[in-house]
Write a structure and sequence with these properties.
Helices cover about 0% and strands about 35% of the residues. It contains no helices and 7 strands. A 4-stranded antiparallel sheet has the order 1-2-7-6, with no helix packed on it. It has a 3-stranded antiparallel sheet with strand order 3-4-5, with no helix packed on it. It is elongated and about 80 Å long.
Length: about 130
Amino acid sequence: MNLIPRSFFLDDFFDDFGKVKTVDMKCDVYEEGNDYVIEMDAPGLKKEDIDIDVDKGYLTVSISRNVENSDEGKNYIRKERFYGSTRRQFYIGDASEDDIKANFDHGVLKIVVPKKEEIQSKKKIEIE
């Protein structure tokens, strides 16, 4: 019986060595009144690193972060910070692009998409 967890002595320190890291663009999507709200974590990024586009009913959030030039001469043991580009898409239907608002504060990107008023198109069909 082993009571000490495997990673207790940093046994997994080099487990990810040599693997390419990807960015997890973690987010929460919720309803707030007449809006849908997307809150996405983007720590360490600047507003200039983020692009938000709407095309054919999809809202796309793209991030791009350039490699630091000060990496020369460093002998990394582990490198977890992300450099490169990635994106994430959300289907928003035919929401008005002009009414979508975005705010970036303290490493959190908040996008507010107004709900479109749904038209009741349900109709009962009589059987002959």
